[in-house]
RRM domain-containing protein (Merluccius polli), 137 residues
Amino acid sequence: MDVIQANSVKIPNSIIVSGIAGTETDEELYDFLKQYGSIQRVIPVDFAEPASGKQVVVEYVYAIQSLLPSLPYRLNSKTQTDVTYHIRALASIYTPVASKTATQTYLSELKDIAKQTGKDLQLSSGKSSPSSVRLSI
């Protein structure tokens, strides 16, 4: 899901919804979701499964603790009986993918910051623990 990284989505604050109709019916969904907090943004996901309709990532301003116990959730439209939204926590489907590159992305960002200051970022293994890393700028 390149869209997640490209848009710097806050995963703990986000859900993914499939079944987006692209019509006024979707307002029912957004009205439902607003009950759980302020929505910061809605990001279309371009690789929707044809059978489930379009997908969007909904990012809230704050973490969605009150919504999490209900997920996954199916919301049936009250006005269009053939429209059903499937709501899942983004972390439940994205975290395994994201965790593989999180450290690499973080270190890449540190290198970029160091370059902007005119210094090189050097990584070296610490002697106290094989898993520790010492950063020298």
User: Anything to note?
Assistant: The first strand starts at residue 14 and ends at 20.
